[in-house]
Design goal:
Alpha-Beta Plaits; Calcium-transporting ATPase, cytoplasmic transduction domain A; 5 domains
Length: 717
């Protein structure tokens, strides 16, 4: 049994080390099985038996004030948006102070030289102002980590820039005491370090806030209020959380549907593109279902709510996207493990750098190597700080799941998105995924002693309690023949095989058969056969073609008979040798789990649930059974098999961007450590390091923006 999970909101996180600290603190509790931290999304997903209050307390005690995400003010999460904007503005202000003070003092230093006494005082004042006004943004975070006996990215920045400032103050005091050192001071460098790194944090905060726009855009699809009709015919405007199933709501032209419902009065064309991905409006009239977030274009509708505001389609989509953004791909888990030990290693390298250069100073009896050691250590601390590492994976995941969600593709976990990128075979159930799932009777064959009407009458009686597409086809045929189904007893549906019942004291069976869609038996005697034929979905053939062009193997795995499945395969351009027919739910699951390659299984019925669970990535059709949807990793819109190649494209692009981001955020830092430690960057090393770190941040953010633009351009929207 899967342990329950919940999400916490922790907006004060800033880097991968913060995520590591939170994970370590929570994993010490016996009731925690797994922790997934999403830094840009400011959420912590906890799996286990621990309660939310205790988990929030542990995270708060670790230095990151937290609370259950479902308590973060209303569904629109306005407070969280305001907090994100405030954080962005704080870093913008710090960057402006640091760089605004550094530029004029650096110009004076470069043009006049630093030997002038008054200029040294100006540099001291400038460095002190920046350290006092900007430094606390780093110092408080580093100190909080130190109290938890851990480190984070701000530890490196604080020690590096703080050392440069303190070192310069010592030299300044010695100069005032008439002790000549002959060494340059680094007040301006301390200022630019704080300024440039604050600029990088501003880029991160701004980009993280924008990356979360998928959630906001989804929430904006659902209006805050609805117009409810009262018993006397009058209407009132109510908040969304006041709507209950059964309420009658008025939806005027140009308005969005507040909740899922059924049309009671009126007719209109509904634009469902932002929910289902279908570009053309669809006609909806009395008795038709409608979904929240859809746009009513021309007619006035009265709908009966079938869900509350919290349980609407938009709310469920938003919850799924939020959960996915808070989950971790396996590649991110590896990154987190690396980052958890990276900072302590860097601190050790910095100490060794100082010691090594100090030994050289003692051997040569020269002050210069010691100064080089201090500056080189500061450079190591700064250039090693992979602040962008905490953004590399989750930002790309946000973009990928957001773009998928806008097209009606709901991904339940980051791992599903990652696995879909490397899939080798796509397996489709036939009915309801590649076909319309609305079969019709083509032929009725009666055995001697029975008539066609007898066969249809008895089959319709047995199928009446069933919701299977074949049952609907048989009942439709009975209706056309003017036959009213009789009541039966002891009804039993056998998944993948058919139905059984008792009619007038005799057993009735309507079962799958190799010769026809179903064979009808009454009283243990076969009385006839009914042939049923489905029709392919409009984009089924194009879906098969696209998947094949992408280098994927495509298989149809069906419970239908071989000739019926092959007929559909012929219609959609699928080779007959790719058809596996006559499958039971058990054999479907076994066939899928026996594959050596990575697989996507697409299905919609109860008989597909085991196969969906056994595939690398299970994809359920949104109109399918709850069991199938629960067993799947991804939910796609009904009647849109083209969503499958779309998901693979998005997944491949997202995984490629993640790998690029990790390279940009991490590899160059590691490569530059020995360069910095050996003093090869010279006296300007700390400034070069700060600039390089900012470039790393900008590179990761820019690459993620490129991913978003690329997906919009290639996929539309």
């Amino acid at each position: 049994m899967t342990a329950p999970s919940f999400r916490l909101s922790a907006p004060d996180m800033s880097c991968a080390s913060c995520a590591g600290s939170i994970t370590t603190a929570l994993m010490r509790h016996d009731g925690v099985e797994d922790v997934s931290v999403n830094v840009p999304g400011a959420t912590v997903t906890v799996t286990g038996t621990i309660d939310q209050a205790t988990a929030a307390s542990i995270v708060t005690d670790a230095g990151f004030p937290a609370m259950p995400a479902d308590q973060v003010a209303p569904a629109r999460q306005g407070d969280r948006e305001a907090a994100a904007i405030a954080k962005e503005r704080r870093w913008a202000r710090r960057a402006a102070i640091g760089l605004g003070i550094w530029v004029p003092t650096a110009v004076l230093n470069w043009t006049l030289g630093e030997d002038l006494l008054w200029l040294q005082w100006v540099q001291l004042a400038a460095g002190t102002i920046v350290t006092v006004l900007v430094g606390p943004g780093f110092f408080t975070s580093a100190w909080a980590a130190a109290k938890r006996r851990t480190t984070n990215m701000d530890t490196l920045i604080s020690i590096g820039a703080g050392t440069a400032y303190v070192y310069s103050v010592v030299l300044f005091v010695l100069e005032r005491m008439q002790i000549e050192t002959g060494q340059p001071m680094y007040f301006t460098e301390a200022s630019v370090l704080f300024g440039l790194i604050s600029l990088g944090h501003w880029f991160e905060a701004r980009s993280s806030r924008r990356a979360g726009s998928a959630i906001r855009e989804l929430l904006e699809l659902q209006p805050d209020t609805a117009e409810r009709r009262l018993d006397d015919g009058a209407t009132e405007v109510v908040e969304l959380d006041q709507i209950s199933p059964g309420d009658h709501l008025v939806v005027r032209p140009g308005g969005r549907l507040p909740v899922d419902g059924t049309v009671l009065e009126g007719a209109s064309e509904i634009d469902e593109s932002l929910i289902t991905g279908e570009s053309e409006p669809v006609a909806r009239g009395v008795g038709d279902p409608v979904v929240s977030g859809s746009l009513n274009t021309v007619g006035r509708l009265i709908i009966e709510a079938t869900a509350s505001g919290a349980d609407s389609t938009v709310a469920r989509i938003t919850e799924l996207v939020s959960n996915t953004m808070g989950s971790k791909a396996s590649i991110q888990r590896l990154t987190d493990k690396v980052s958890s030990i990276f900072v302590p290693i860097v601190l050790a390298v910095a100490v060794c750098t100082v010691i090594g250069w100090s030994i050289l100073a003692g051997v040569t009896d020269d002050w210069a190597p010691f100064r080089t050691g201090i500056i080189s250590a500061v450079t190591v601390l700064i250039i090693s700080c992979p602040c962008a590492l905490g953004l590399a994976t989750p930002m790309a995941i946000m973009v990928g799941t957001g773009e998928s969600g806008r097209r009606g593709i709901l991904i339940k976990s980051a791992e599903a998105l990652e696995h879909a990128a490397s899939v080798e075979r796509v397996i489709f159930d036939k009915t309801g995924t590649l076909t319309k799932g609305e079969p019709s009777v083509t032929t009725v064959i009666a055995e001697e002693g029975s008539s066609e009407d007898d066969v249809v009458r008895i089959a319709a009686a047995a199928e009446a309690p069933s919701e299977h597409p074949v049952a609907r086809a048989v009942l439709a045929e009975a209706h056309q023949r003017g036959i009213t189904p009789e009541a039966v007893d002891d009804f039993l549906a056998v998944p993948g095989q058919g139905v059984q019942a008792t009619l007038q004291g005799k057993p009735v069976e309507v079962m799958r058969d190799p010769r026809a869609a179903c064979v009808v038996r009454h009283g243990g005697v076969e009385i006839g056969r009914i042939d049923v034929r489905d029709t392919p979905l409009p984009d089924a053939a194009q879906t098969v073609q696209r998947l094949t062009e992408m280098g994927l193997q495509v298989t149809m795995l069906s419970g239908d008979r071989q000739d019926a499945a092959e007929a559909i395969a012929d219609d959609i351009g699928l080779p007959r040798d790719a058809v596996i027919a006559g499958q039971t739910p058990e054999s479907k699951a076994n066939w899928v789990t026996e594959r050596s390659e990575t697989t996507i299984m697409v299905g919609d019925g109860l008989n597909d649930a085991a196969a969906l669970a056994g595939a690398t990535v299970g994809m359920a059709v949104g109109s399918g059974t709850n069991v199938a949807i629960d067993a799947a990793d991804v939910v796609i819109p009904a009647h849109r098999p083209s969503a499958v190649p779309l998901l693979v494209k998005i997944s491949r692009s997202t995984l490629r961007a993640i790998k690029q981001n990790l390279f940009l955020a991490f590899v160059y830092n590691t490569a530059m450590i020995p360069v910095a430690a050996f003093g090869l960057l010279g006296p300007w090393g700390p400034v070069i390091a700060a600039g390089a770190m900012a470039v790393s941040d900008v590179s990761v953010i820019g690459n993620t923006v490129r991913l978003s633009a690329s997906l919009k351009r290639r996929l539309g929207g």
